[in-house]
Amino acid sequence: MGEGNGADLVWILVSLVGLEIGTQLVVDNAVRISKHYRVPETVIGLSLLAIGTDLPELVISLDASMRNLGGADASGIITGNAVGSALAQIGFVLGCSGLLGVLSMSKQYLYRHGSALLGSLVLLFLVGLDGVVTRGEGMMLVTVYVVYLASLLDEAQVKRGESAAQGRLFDPSAPRTAWFVLALGLTIVVGSAELAVTSATNLARAWEIDQTVVAILILGLGSSLPEFAISTKAVLQKRGSLSVGNLIGSNIFDTLVPVGVSALIVPLAFDAGLLRFEIPYLFALSLLVLVFFFRNDGVHRRESAVALAAYGAYAVIKLMTS
After folding, report:
1. pLDDT tens for residues 127-159?
2. Given its phi and psi angles, is residue 293 left (phi above 0), alpha (psi -120 to 50 degrees) or beta?
3. CA-to-CA distance for 12 and 6, rounded, in angstroms?
4. How far apart are the C-alpha atoms of 299 and 310, rounded to whole Å?
5. Buried (b) or exposed (e) across 44-57, using 16+ Cβ within 10 A?
């Protein structure tokens, strides 16, 4: 490994640490602010945590799309990171969390949101069939997620005037420190994402490896660290349903929003390899995990080991074929 290559790998690791720290600051302080305005905890867990922990994937995709707009080709980083992160969450993160305790969720919840997860994967597959995600298709992906998010608010039965009754958004009594740290966290996330995209692109070029592979195995797994931290903590606190909700919500977000928003900026090239292998593999693994939930009233250690082994097998296949 050349000196330059080693430096790029080190910078990727540094950027992933920055992404984790920055995202954790964002999530923690967003929760503080939400609690201050008395937003229902259900909405915080299913929407705010899912979106907050996916900031790295979104910012990486936005950064790469700006490179596309400037004439570079970073489409593989965008699509690969989105799919790779979803694979890491449903395989690696869920597998590790399930080894620590039982993961459970009501069947009514799983029917609705499990269907949304599988449907989002089918939609992503369909928009990528012609090899390009157009601006119109990007708008469709984002719109579907907005509709899904609205359904979460309806499911939680949030009254329109509930938050307004608690005070203005920038009420002087609001926790100012939380707002400041939230902004600091966003700055760290943006800077770390820029560093990650630059270093990953350099590695892909130097090692003559398709940038999609680098995005899936390095950025995809690394940007799932926030979900890993939150999910394992929730399981250790005997709150397995929160862990499952965060993972399902994050995967729906990853499948729709990063690719959709990036395509709105500039149309994306969609790697045919994702259609042949990654997305079908992700769909099959997601379906298998949902079957585990329905048949066994939760995911236990044995099922978690299966999910973890499935992700490990995928990683080995990608490394051997790249």
Report:
1. 999 999 999 999 999 999 999 998 887 766 554
2. alpha
3. 10
4. 15
5. bbbbbbbbbbbbbb
Domain total in the chain: 1
* Percentage helix, strand, coil for the chain under 3-state DSSP, each rounded to 5: 80, 0, 15
Complete DSSP assignment for 107-141: HHHHHHHHHHHHHHHHHHHHHTTTSEE-HHHHHHH
Distance CA 19, CA 13 (A): 10
Distance between CA atoms of residues 41 and 192, nearest Å = 29
Which range scores top for mean pLDDT: 70-84, 199-213, 224-238? 70-84
Nearest to 242 by CA among 106, 111, 88: 106
| Domain housing 237 | 3-321
Task: Name the burial class of residue 185, with classes exposed (0-12), middle (13-18) and buried (19+) by CB atoms within 10 angstroms of its CB.
Answer: buried
Residues 6 or more apart whose Cβ sits within 8 Å of residue 83: 124, 216, 220, 254, 255, 274, 278, 279, 282
Q: Which residue has the tokens 């993972």?
A: 247
Quick check: helix, strand or coil at residue 55?
helix
Is the overall model pTM greater than 0.85, yes or no?
no
DSSP 103: B
Q: How far apart are CA 177 and CA 279, in angstroms?
A: 42
Q: What is the CATH number of the domain that holds 86?
A: 1.20.1420.30
Q: Beta partners for 133?
A: 268
**Structure tokens belonging to residue 34:** 């939400």
**67 sits in which H/E element:** helix 55-69
Establish how many alpha carbons lie within 13 A of residue 179's alpha carbon, considering only the half-sphere containing its beta carbon.
Answer: 9
Nearest to 17 by CA among 160, 189, 183, 169: 189
User: Residues 59-88: pLDDT tens digits?
Assistant: 888 888 888 877 777 788 888 888 888 999
Structure-block tokens of residue 202: 């350099």
